[in-house]
Design brief:
With 295 residues, this protein is α/β, with parallel strands linked by helices. It is built from eight helices and ten strands. The protein folds into two domains: 12-89, no CATH class; 97-294, Rossmann fold, CATH 3.40.50. It comes from Paenibacillus aestuarii.
Amino acid sequence: MTDDKTKRLSVYLPEKVKAGLELMADETGLSMTQLIVMATHSLLANYEARGGSIFADLLSARHRIGQEAEQKRLLLEQDKKAMQDYYGARAEEYERIYHRDDPDYQQGLILLRHAMTGVVRGRRVLEVACGTGYWTQAAADAAEHILGVDIRPEVLQIAKAKPWPAGKVDFCIGDAYRLDQVEGGFNCGVANFWFSHIPRNRLDEFLESFHRRLGHGATVFIADNVYVAGRGGELIRKEDSEDTFKRRELADGTQHDIIKNYYSYDELNDIFKPYAKHLQVFVGSSFWYVIYTIA
């Protein structure tokens, strides 16, 4: 008996390809196996005649897609670093924005404080992107405990130097996209004036990380700016980005283009609804906020 040298190849065919072969088999009277064998012989003959050049277009497309993905990743990293550097440099100036001489703006801040205080009351709070602790101060008396997390040591140094109720507030360096590295138990999450700085294609990444760290049933409060023309610097759009940016100048004269995305009521509802129970969306003239329970 001679050894059978034939190897059976198990090949997965996408549904669209399979349907096309079935149609071809019906029209020609050939079996699908015969069609596949004929196509294979044709491919081998073409390869023998022309070599690997027959795959040039396919390989070029794969290479191009890989390059585009890497370029997009590098741009995201550059935007992330630019924003971190900006807030590090801006640490001493940060809270000036909350002292804007604008009655409507100040009334909006009062509304935000009141809404947030009601959410954090009696809870153990994880505050993401806490900055210099401005919102931490507003929540400290009501909450059971707050852990403020920020990636910039400069702003945390300012936050830690403020007077805090004994045993109620702590701070640590942490990445908003890697909250699994933050220790502690929480039943409430706060993220104020951070959401607008998240690239649109990373919103789900942040929310899923945030929600995993808090757990099902935790309550969330997130607030940010409503777009007002002329406020907070020039709005910039770039051809290669779905995000918008604000061009801001610091006291030292340096200019920075920082991701700053704005959302409508409908957009906020669409973003948070898949993750939330009891979702409340408020959009005012200066600020918006959402309150919900993690589903």
